[in-house]
């Protein structure tokens, strides 16, 4: 469900029909989960730092529940067929018309691997056997972590799922770099292509540029 | 904030003072996020499969917002000091009195690496430089993914944070296997010790036993 998931990340987490009621102050610019009312008791929430905590949370003054919002996992797959990889042209906003590998929000009840396989089936109608986890890319400013796997396509069969306008095999030299939907997707693909050139796939753990994060592993110098 | 985070996983997501109001039906046994009322408009939510979706969600009949709940990331670290690793004895429920490596829920605004470093500082008062991501362990039945890093302690300094009763260095042969707090922690430590014996740290991507997940990577046979 890449479509709906991404709505969370683009400042549209609450649709217009939340109307004239009290709007939350935090995270409004990033689209990270916001709340007006307590999901436990239905009374208004406010934002404060709970006792013993050091971060601002949505807290219910009526029933005292503290509502935690945590980063979401986007599971993705770079599907390989011989010397080419499968990319999808997005049929949905944001970035409709631009290219990405299959990726979407992980669901409760599945593993990271199942999520990557499912998204590949949904968006590219392709069946993959995952071979490695290639990158773990944090996007601290929007509370997301991309887990990007590499998968071998079991057959040459693929097609456009409902969220894709087109799905095509690209040789690494043909990747449409100026038409990639998201920076994080471009960054993952760049590392993948670099690894191909070096002849060895390695795990990359990093944050994408423009994020708030600093520490990274010694082995990701890109 | 491991303490509060873990409350979400043990069926206590909604405290008793939600009182006599309508209780949610889904996820009640697992403690995965539940809601009674719409966080956007404050009216009651119900559970149904939205059009074009294939999973049951909390949906608001009044303002039509669909509320997605996704897995949470627990970032952890196995801190190394020479040939020993640092473990914490939990001061909080669940599993108070049992041992774990530092781990806790990732926060919005940080990277996975920052989360692991922060948890190590909070729970073990130790400063680490992360050297590798060691395991990605999904717990589908409770909607969590553990990202476990290995970190080198920068100094021998450590101590019990507010969530720990005790913090100690253990040689791998001394790990208190029958007093480990959680299965996922035991599974991560077991892989770490196996890798030590083989003389090579590798990345492990797997789901913990008892979970709903099946697919896994070829390179995690354990």
From TrEMBL, chains A, B:
Pfam families membership: NUDIX (PF00293), Zn_ribbon_Nudix (PF14803)
Cofactor(s) this protein requires: Mg(2+)
Domain Nudix hydrolase: 70-193
Family annotation (InterPro entries): Nudix_hydrolase (IPR020476), NUDIX_hydrolase-like_dom_sf (IPR015797), NUDIX_hydrolase_dom (IPR000086), Nudix_N (IPR029401)
UniProt keyword terms in alphabetical order: Hydrolase, Magnesium
A GO term for molecular function: hydrolase activity
PANTHER family linked to this entry: NUDIX HYDROLASE 23, NUDIX HYDROLASE 23, CHLOROPLASTIC
Protein name listed in UniProt: Putative Nudix hydrolase, MutT family (Modular protein)
Organism from which the protein derives: Nitrospira japonica
């Amino acid at each position: 469900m890449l479509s709906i998931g991404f709505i969370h990340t683009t400042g549209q987490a609450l649709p217009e029909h939340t109307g004239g009621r009290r709007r939350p102050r935090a995270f409004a610019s990033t689209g990270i989960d916001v709340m007006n009312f307590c999901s436990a008791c239905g009374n208004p929430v406010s934002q404060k730092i709970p006792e013993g905590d050091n971060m601002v949370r949505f807290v219910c003054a009526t029933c005292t529940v503290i509502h935690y919002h945590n980063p979401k996992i986007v599971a993705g797959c770079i599907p390989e067929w011989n010397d080419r990889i499968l990319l999808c042209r997005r049929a949905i906003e944001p970035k409709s018309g631009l290219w990405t590998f299959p990726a979407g929000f992980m669901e409760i009840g599945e593993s990271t691997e199942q999520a990557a396989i499912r998204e590949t089936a949904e968006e590219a109608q392709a069946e993959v056997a995952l071979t490695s986890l290639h990158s773990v890319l944090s996007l601290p400013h929007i509370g997301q972590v991309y887990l990007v796997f590499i998968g071998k396509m079991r057959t040459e069969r693929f097609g456009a799922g409902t969220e894709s306008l087109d799905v095509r095999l690209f040789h690494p030299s043909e990747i449409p770099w100026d038409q990639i939907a998201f920076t994080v997707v471009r960054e993952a693909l760049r590392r993948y292509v670099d690894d191909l050139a070096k002849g060895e796939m390695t795990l990359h753990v990093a944050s994408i540029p423009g994020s708030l994060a600093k520490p990274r592993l010694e082995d990701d110098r890109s």
